[in-house]
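Hypothesis: this fold can be encoded by more than one sequence.
Test: take the structure tokens below, design a sequence, compare later.
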């Protein structure tokens, strides 16, 4: 099949080849309408710039692009460190970018790396539709981490968010809790949406209705977490246990609990974090190992660079519940 050319894109968009070149090369003085027409034509034709296609064919460049939410997030900091270590072992470099959970910024970061001629891409996707990546998939390995997208277009390395969250809430229920708060609800993340489903699955299996007031948003600041904790304690039927959807949420909750001298609430964190074992009591966690995810993703990259081809794989890596004390506090020990 003939590869589409710059002139093909120009004809499809109804503009000059020079205009197409300016859009692709990121010129700033481009009208929104012209940019839209060119980008639409590029996507429709699955056009890959000749310079990039030639570089990929010749194997120019020795870096792997990694695009994640934020390098300051403890989970992604550990994941990117694991990717970098595995890349160095394979004689490859890495270049990192963050999305800030902005779909437009995600695409900008990805396409900037593509134009920098990276050999492969590891991406924590922001949105579910990633059709814009189709034209690159035949040119380089693309591996998604932590989250899935619509359709099975690329290799994905993740955990069973729904099942693992259910197991954690089952653990709290087995201890005797019935008023369990889910802290960190955020519909921007498919992972957290799945964990919320797992939370509800566990409650439903025990004949417990998920109370709306116990499904709490992600605390953005320390002050938010203190206010959230106070609210959960003042209900006529107060929460006796907390399930933190992410390690970020757990860190905020630990701050609030220590600030208010609250040590009698049960707590389980989805994801470990530094000093979690040094707290009193130590924090029970779902060991959502970012290092394993990063290493597995990098192995899929190396397999692809080595010539392994086949249908995309959905790789679910194992987790384990690590009881340390905070998740084993019984409701009879909670002050009301």
């Amino acid at each position: 099949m003939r590869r589409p050319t710059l002139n093909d894109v120009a004809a499809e968009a109804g503009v000059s080849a020079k205009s197409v070149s300016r859009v692709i090369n990121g010129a700033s003085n481009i009208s929104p309408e012209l940019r839209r027409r060119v980008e639409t034509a590029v996507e429709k034709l699955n056009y890959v710039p000749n310079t990039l296609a030639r570089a990929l064919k010749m194997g120019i460049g020795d870096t792997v692009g990694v695009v994640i939410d934020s390098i300051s997030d403890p989970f992604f900091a550990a994941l990117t460190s694991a990717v970098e270590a595995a890349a160095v072992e394979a004689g490859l470099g890495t270049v990192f970018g963050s999305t800030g959970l902005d779909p437009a910024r995600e695409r900008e970061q990805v396409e900037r790396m593509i134009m920098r001629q990276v050999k492969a891409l590891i991406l924590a996707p922001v949105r579910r539709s990633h059709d814009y990546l189709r034209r690159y998939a035949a040119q380089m390995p693309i591996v998604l981490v932590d989250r899935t997208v619509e359709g099975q277009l690329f290799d994905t390395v993740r955990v069973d968010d729904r099942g693992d969250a259910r197991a954690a809430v089952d653990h709290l229920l087995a201890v005797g809790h019935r008023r369990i708060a889910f802290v960190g609800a955020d519909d921007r993340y498919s992972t957290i949406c799945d964990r919320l489903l797992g939370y509800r699955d566990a409650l439903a299996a025990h004949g417990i209705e998920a109370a709306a007031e116990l499904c709490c948003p992600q605390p953005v600041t320390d002050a938010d977490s203190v206010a959230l904790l106070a609210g959960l304690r003042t209900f006529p039927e107060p929460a006796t246990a907390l399930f933190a959807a992410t390690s970020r949420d757990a860190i905020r909750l630990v701050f609030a609990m220590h600030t208010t001298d609250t040590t009698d609430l049960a707590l389980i964190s989805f994801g470990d974090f530094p000093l979690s074992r040094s707290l009193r009591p130590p924090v029970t966690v779902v060991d959502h190992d970012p290092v394993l995810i990063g290493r597995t993703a990098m192995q899929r990259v190396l397999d692809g660079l080595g010539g392994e081809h086949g249908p995309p794989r959905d790789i679910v890596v194992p987790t384990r519940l690590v009881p340390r004390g905070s998740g084993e506090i019984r409701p009879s020990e909670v002050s009301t």
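The longest strand covers residues 63-68. Residues 24 and 49 are 8 Å apart (CA to CA).
Hypothesis status: open.
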